[in-house]
## 1
Amino acid sequence: MGPISSRATLTLEPDGLRLDGRQGLARSLHAQLKQKILLGQLAAAQRLPASRDLAQRLGVSRNTVLRAYEQLMAEGLLEGHPGAGCYVAQLRREPPPTAARTPAQAAGFEESGQASELWARLQSLHLTPPLRPGERGLRWGLPAQDKFPHILWSRLQQRFWRRHPQLASGYADPAGLPRLRALIAAYLNSSRGLACTPEQVLLSAGSQQAIAIAALALLNPGDRVAMESPGYRAAAAALGLGGAQVLPLPLDSEGLRIGALEALGDCRMAYITPSHQFPSGVVMSAQRRLDLLAWAQRHQAYLLEDDYDGEYRYAGVPLAPLASLSGAQQRVLYIGTFSKLLFPGLRLGYMVAPKAWVPTLAKLRAVLDRQSSIVDQHVLADFIEEGHFLRHVRRMRRTASARRDTFIRAWERELDGILPLPSPLIEAGLQLLLRLPNPHWEQCLLKAAQAKGLEIGGLRQVGGLASHSQEAGLVLGFAATPEAQLEAVVADLAQCWRPVLAGLRRKDEQ
Ligand SMILES: Cc1ncc(COP(=O)(O)O)c(C=O)c1O
């Protein structure tokens, strides 16, 4: 680098700089000079005007210019000294990329084949948008969030911060707080009939992350994974993260069809929701559970049991998970979540795996996002330990059951003659599936509901069905909406659907 004094002085036209006071004058000046340097509009080794001169010409304080120059120096874009002369640094630079030539290139880099396969798959993944405040409808998958005891929760949170601020702020075991893992294991043993130890429990950010962890840890690219179809679209996305092939398999009234699974030949994993199939609501029969387990043992395959809403059973006691069957220990990974019992925004769920696997699975968890919030884990542990959790589960079950009854009564009153609910009626879960004759029906009914500002799930989107499938239906969530509002929503649906249904029937008869 030559002596600074030999470099030319650059004349900066103040007109070429347009400072924006909203983001701060110094910051705005810094950003504009930086861009000019990086684009080569200010040549290497050229001298910038003295700070006093530039300040005068721009009508700003000298301090503003000095701050901008100092920042550019700290970033290595200017050399010298703000008081004694600043020069544009000598930077080696590639020529700027040529502009996209075609609209397809401009649309994104996946068009040019440079993105990963995962990137391409994510383009076609549809995520259900979060409910907007005040939005009405029958949103599937949500519990009665209005029943969550948020004042009690915030009291527990405050107490935790008061008593143990030092525990909250660091890194912790990615598998989860030992105390919380022990409480979850105790709950699963006593309430769900699943014999497991705390060391088998791995905390996760909801069941979504647990599914992703299982898929990434146990599958190789190209491995086959079977899943129920219609099924939980977000699970399919997680199962395929590492490049496994996710194959949809048909259901019958007992659950995933074993014959279709056998026909696949080599298959390393099957993802299932046996307590309450999502979204059809089928409860997997005892025989099918045994058959599935035998299949997994024969093929050395894994069963990923997603027990997302197993506690919501309205007749009799909740069914024991498939993972509780004898012989399931090395073959079934059990996944649970607090999303449906507390609230989904908490992002706490868990997996129960063989004890020897958990340290490795915990390493994967640490690689992904390190751990769950320590405060949330402690507060949840207190919530469980002090008896609030079991009380809340009972309240949530009662509430969902009452809302289900209200929903059914309102439907029978308003819509039974024109769009009857399936029979037998739902005895579990937070939503029901109402099958429709074909995709055209689904599209028309959803469009009419949408026009009335009502949010309803369509089977084809919610259940991730391929476009050639003729299956169709509505996924109707009843648990998240208070009773009075449920009645009003069903009445509004009846009003907007009556003419649509009459038209569809006429067309079908022709
Ligand atoms: C089948 C299924 N699994 C899991 C979940 C819950 O996911 P998470 O625990 O990630 O909130 C849902 C939510 O709708 C679901 O439908």
## 2
Amino acid sequence: MTTTLVRRRYSGLSPSHKSSFFPGDPDLARRLKARIAGEVLFDPFSRGRYATDASIYQIEPLGVVVPRTADDVRRTLEVAHHAGAPVLPRGGGTSQCGQTVGRAVVVDVSKHLDRVLAFDAGARAVTVEPGITLDRLNAFLKPHGLWFPVDISTGDRATLGGMAGNNSCGTRSLRYGTMRDNVHAIEALLPDGQAVRFGEIPWDADLGRLSAPLGPLAEKLFALGAREADEVAARFPALMRRVGGYNIDALVRDAPASGTLRGHNRAAANLAHLLVGSEGTLAFTTALELDLAPLPPHRALGVCHFPTFYKAMASTQHIVRLDPSAVELVDRTMIDLARAIPMFRAAVDQFVRGEPEALLLVEFAGEDRDEQLRGLKRLSELMGDLGLTDSVIEITDAKLQRDVWDVRKAGLNIMMSMKGEGKPVSFIEDCAVRLEDLAEYTDRLTAVFRKHGTTGTWYAHASVGCLHVRPVLNLKSEIEVKKMRAIAEEAFAMVREYKGSHSGEHGDGLVRSEFHQPMFGSRMVGAFAEVKGAFDPEGRMNPGKIVDPPRMDDRTLFRYPPGYATKKFETALDWSEWGGFAPAVEMCNNNGACRKRDGGVMCPSYRATLDEAHVTRGRANALRLALSGQLGRDALLSDDMAEAMKLCVGCKGCRRECPTGVDMARMKIEVLYQRARRLGVPLRDKLIAHLPRYAPVMARMPWLMRLRDRIPGLGMLSERVLGLSARRSLPKFAADPFDLVRDAPVAPVGAQSHDAPIDPAAREVVLWVDTFDTYFEPENARAAVRVLAAAGYRVHLAKPDDGGRPLCCGRTYLAAGMVAEARAEAGRLLAHVVPFAKRGVPIVGLEPSCLLGLRDEIPALFPGDEAKALAGRAKLFEEFLAEEAAAGRLALPLKPLPKRALLHPHCHQKSFGVVSAVERVLRLVPGLRVETIDAGCCGMAGAFGFGADTFDVSMRMARESLLPALAQAGADDIVVADGTSCRHQIADAAGQSAMHVARLLEQSLTENRP
Ligand SMILES: Cc1cc2nc3c(=O)[nH]c(=O)nc-3n(C[C@H](O)[C@H](O)[C@H](O)COP(=O)(O)OP(=O)(O)OC[C@H]3O[C@@H](n4cnc5c(N)ncnc54)[C@H](O)[C@@H]3O)c2cc1C
Ligand code: SF4
Ligand code: SF4
């Protein structure tokens, strides 16, 4: 095929929505594979995963390259150059305007190109590869008292390359400016692969002496800057928050500074500033030289209360004169949303007084603590002058300051978690106007929303006149799309009236580039095209962004284009909360929070692999495309889908930490069920799933299972035949499993009937002992019985009404997608415990994944009141005790234990917010110092760690954070882990033993029996 032909084939923005994604161009894939060491992903699933970003758009890429080195990037550009194929650089893919989607070879630098290349603390300078995230860079800098101060809210997953690409800006831009103000130089590759360092060039330099390709390029650009100086002065809004178009003002000598331009050298042009904000349309960044700032040691926060939103907006211009580092808006809707979340209510009560219509969070930061306190005082005086005496809550406590910022972020998350077809849509959400126009502008825009029958919640960067607002629209509807366009046109016309900026933070992409014409005028748009032509004459770098854009409301480019529909089918679980399985999947808006690599749990498989395929977002995208038929027939049941789901450990991290509550653990059960129904269940999965049924028999010959670990060769055999890793020890059946009769509590004697009336004097509790604790670690159950009895509870052991084998929740069946069997198991449990629950008796369990399933999967298996009643009463052992202690009802005789307890919480304990309950219960032990390990998933996750094909990833997960933390444990420390899998992993991988909290309490009882 000739280059011309290929070029014609690849040109333009072809609509993404054919009936399905076809395999990518095999010839291009082959040529790339021959040249690079990294991954070349041209299969439909991979291309589907890279067809979206956090915008409303979807475009099928030609293919994906994940380069291992900068040299791989160069080779990719060379291959694409010869093939005439467009190229699209990509970091975290968190762009909101569609700048990271396109019919191109997408090159994802976030996996491998994330190193710090050079660092000079004295010069406050660092050089990094483009794929490093902001938070990782700042973690590196922190010990040196430095930071990179463009503090965007996606810092945990946004890359420096992407931040430069979009000219990102953070909460404290008032002080530190935008990316442009903080990038010193950029090393980049031109579209044909030639390397250039873009940095300062003195205005009076002899450009002819610079070597090619920089010299001739600089000559063109300097000439363009000189020619367009007047146009830039006339057309560029005099605002820091102007990120639209190319930064042509960087080419204009003595152009008025639009940002803070920290350390700006007026004697030189900085060509890196032209690349900043160019959205991957000019060159491919391979390294960034950044200017750093000292970390301010002292911060003080004033929370200003306003009786009206208008007053808050009108006051901002006065407040910024006090030299704060941030002024952020939180409106009434957000306050109410935050108040509705139990975990934030206490903090909100501390910093919100009464019922204000808006808050401005005003931060002062710097070296001198007294100076920051004086800032607060001046703020109170100013508010008094504005007629708002006694309206500032002053916060100097660092923890409460953090809580305030967390609440602001959480409000946004709640807003984004709106269920149903209408969603807050990002398209005018970062217009910026002068502060003196802010009140009138927000007032008028609110009226525009009203006129179109919608609303928007306002928040964010009041200090720089850049407020976020997302009108709620259903973009699956043609009428609502028309509304979006009308709102955009009216909003931008208004912004033009105010000489404001239509693109003030998130970039241009597909949603805004079209409006450069009315906002900047034809001459400036022509100049943008000239810049593009100088760098990329063939127009192959991220086409359709900034120059030559399509219409922003071209629905064929939407994630939900005309004709988008999902297949209806019978589901195993109840998805009515979301309006069905597909709407639950569509909750993923691609914001990429699941790509964070530190803190919390979500998403262990991503942290271990750094693959887009193995992050919650990648799975949600694969599911959405499959359900809507875009990955071909029966894609939901395909091996590719099974592969995409395989590394999901069902940790439920996403259920809690995903801002929109995407619950992939539950979705995986549904997918496994659908697959099992059609294709059956693999032998290994069946073997593990049926554990509750064969455990009573196996328990009579515990030696049998141990043979596999003892007789040489049996491990390998079980690996080959059953797929159980030979490198993993199997759980050991106890010689003396928990026995519901023999191990029943002796005193006080429980009335073993659910019909018995509650005795108000002796509080009742049902203890349900799961399969794992019954057969593998009965000592936990016995400890729980003793502790509960010692505290004076009447303990009923949950027993099957039919007198058969012990009760089980069906978790092992759910994990294999064997939903009918799970329902049968759980049905037996429900039959016995629901009557107790209906009487208000707590149902207590020990194993987090089993007990918390009663609040999660079981109600989804049994929609109706019975399961709901149980869910309301099901409590983990530690939750029950913590609640009893808080109510002053717990009398547990415990002796001192002067040791340190290192707590590793189970992922489901984190997901259900019950970690603090374990901590509180452990603190009941006098003298025990409790420290919670800040680690993600242990990697064992039920049967996951036993799989021969998942063992390595399981160990990588453990090595991510748990094992390093455990390595710090002293010989005297007690490791506490309530999850049976966690304890197994800790024993296998760290060689340490961990115990359930029940056992630790039992050992601390003053009258402990052996
Ligand atoms: C919930 C949410 C909150 C956000 N908050 C903020 C905020 O507070 N402030 C803010 O400014 N933005 C914000 N954003 C937008 C976005 O997160 C930022 O623009 C971020 O910097 C993008 O980083 P990324 O790594 O995801 O880049 P990507 O989205 O992957 O890429 C961004 C652009 O840079 C280009 N690019 C990437 N790598 C390179 C490279 N190596 N060479 C050349 N070009 C490259 C891409 O082609 C693309 O045009 C938010 C987004 C979301 C979803
Ligand atoms: S799964 Fe959740 S966190 Fe991840 S991209 Fe989707 S919405 Fe964001
Ligand atoms: S359940 Fe855990 S592993 Fe699975 S997608 Fe969610 S966070 Fe990732």
## 3
Amino acid sequence: MKKGYFVAAFLTAAFVLFSGGFIKAEVISVPNGGFELADENGQPMDWLVDVVDPEDNQIQVDTKVYHSGKASLYFEKGCSPKDYEGTPTPWKGSWMYMRGTEFALPKPGRYIISFWAKQGDGPGNFWLVIYKTDTSTGGKKQLTDDKGTYVIVATDKSGEWKFYEKVLDIPQEFTTLGFQPQIRDANKVWVDDVKVEPFEEEEE
Ligand SMILES: [Ca+2]
């Protein structure tokens, strides 16, 4: 921990030095937000993958299709709720999701949360849910914006890489965040560059 703290302090000092004394943007690292790191099974490091039905659904780090670096997240839901209607396992047709390692923001305030996605033309949409863990209960609490939504939804189905972002006011009690990628209906998507940056009103 101490070594990590020292490195962080050093990098901050170096950043201030080389940016001419102005802190323009603090770098906030989303753990494996670029999906460059995979385990021996091709699963993304720092993300908890919960594929409820591997016959229909798939989560893999893809090293052939990516937006930046050398890899992205491939996320495919091969079934729809209607496929499991009236069966003993209706939950198999419902949400498929995974969760990222939670991370800390330096302070409360306004942030831009963004990602790139390249989505297929299936009926489902990829959602990125923003949440924190309630440390007293272990439950997940979603962060809702002023329009009452707590997700960033990938709406484009052209198969091209598209940028999605949301500006959110992060309150004190939410300075530890987690991301939950999910799809409910059938579709496939590549996701890359999940990022969090401080929002700046004006740039000079
Ligand atoms: Ca990447």
